[in-house]
Write a structure and sequence with these properties.
Elements (H helix, E strand, L loop, with lengths): L9 E6 L2 E7 L3 E11 L2 E22 L6 E12 L3 E7 L11 E9 L4 E4 L3 E3 L5 H12 L2
Antiparallel strand pairs: 1-2, 2-3, 3-4, 4-5, 4-6, 4-7, 7-8, 7-9
């Protein structure tokens, strides 16, 4: 019987009682991808342990876990073997209902413009200020 080996894109490292998830992608090793809600904004944080021919990160947002649109692009380090921290603030979130959850993911873009896999999906529910909510509603009337 022939044995086949499988490569898992997710490693789980146990350090004492702390679990650290590491995701391996073609151009980067991403750790700690998370989102934090703020007043009328969402801040995304992620770190890489290494980057190889990584042009950058395309940030995508969706209202579900299946449909995403490009929000922005952040330049990567290219090649790095040290930890690098990234931050992106999404100030374009509006809350048309009482609660709205936004889903974010990263797409790693390589220097040769080829795309890698997507990161894990992060769900964030921001707190939208009443003034911003009202202004968003007024703008929608005139569209």
């Amino acid at each position: 019987m022939k044995k086949t080996s499988r490569f898992s894109p997710f490693l789980l490292i146990i350090i004492g009682t702390v679990f650290v998830g590491i995701s391996l992608y073609a151009g980067a090793v991403i750790i700690d991808f998370r989102g934090e809600p703020g007043p009328s904004k969402v801040t995304l944080y992620w770190s890489t342990l290494s980057e190889v021919n990584c042009k950058g990160f395309q940030i995508e947002r969706g209202l579900s876990k299946t449909d995403f649109d490009k929000v922005d692009f952040l330049k990567g380090a290219g090649n790095s073997s040290t930890r690098r921290n990234y931050e992106f603030i999404d100030k374009t979130v509006y809350k048309p209902e009482t609660t709205r959850t936004f889903y974010y993911r990263l797409k790693i873009i390589n220097i040769d413009e080829s795309e890698s896999n997507y990161s894990e999906i992060v769900a964030v529910t921001p707190a939208i200020s009443g003034a911003r909510y009202t202004w968003g509603s007024i703008k929608a009337i005139f569209r």
